[in-house]
Amino acid sequence: GTSYLTDIVWWAGTIAMAVGQIGNFLAYTAVPTVLVTPLGALGVPFGSILASYLLKEKLNILGKLGCLLSCAGSVVLIIHSPKSESVTTQAELEEKLTNPAFVGYLCIVLLMLLLLIFWIAPAHGPTNIMVYISICSLLGSFTVPSTKGIGLAAQDIFHNNPSSQRALCLCLVLLAVLGCSIIVQFRYINKALECFDSSVFGAIYYVVFTTLVLLASAILFREWSNVGLVDFLGMACGFTTVSVGIVLIQVFKEFNFNIGEMNKSNMKTD
């Protein structure tokens, strides 16, 4: 029914999620995508820690290790992230959107999506987890760049100059792309959760989604152009560390393992 609408806890959680998404949107307009997207994984360890205290959910030693690895990897990502924005105005954004490299990448993504949605998903989607994950992750190539583009275009909408009209049109187009991609993602995420374990899906989805978003952002915004070899290796190590932490938290959360039981079994063996 609708009794949850009278629950203050439900409203508190809903409002908190809305504020978090608004903050996420603002982050894309302020800092490089290559930093914001991987750091989104911090919601998993913090959520697990809060759930262990507030909801009394069990967090085993592997989950705690995963939380530690996620936080450590995030610190490494922040240290080695690009120090400057490569696209800061609407004119630069329009130039990047019409870049042949990005247009070619979008064409490849659209062809892959059509192939996956209309041919592969109906036949192999319920039995192969990578089909639904690939669809949702490829759509992320539109979601995150659109979000960042909307933030850049919105800066010129309320200015009284000839570019404000173009900024409004660009913003509306990006909003339409963003809305369509989100709707399709929700549909296939729900399909995946009906067929596969949510923990396994969440861990693999994070890694594939983040990788493809970073690829799309690298092609569109060229945020990697100012990153040296040391920073590149540092970010790769940080992302790998965060990914391992997410896998430990999500995939092994039902795994009954603790140091106390291990010590007892060793004592019995001796």
UniProtKB/TrEMBL annotation:
Membrane topology is: Multi-pass membrane protein
Which molecular function GO terms apply here? magnesium ion transmembrane transporter activity
Localization per Swiss-Prot or TrEMBL: Membrane
Predominantly, its location class is membrane
Q: Which GO terms describe its cellular component?
A: early endosome; plasma membrane
* Pfam families according to UniProt: Mg_trans_NIPA (PF05653)
Q: Where are the transmembrane segments?
A: 9-28, 34-55, 62-82, 102-122, 167-188, 200-220, 232-252
Which protein family is it in?
Belongs to the NIPA family.
This protein is called NIPA magnesium transporter 1
Per the UniProt record, the source organism is: Loxodonta africana (African elephant)
List the lineage, top down. Answer: Eukaryota, Metazoa, Chordata, Craniata, Vertebrata
What gene name does this entry carry? NIPA1
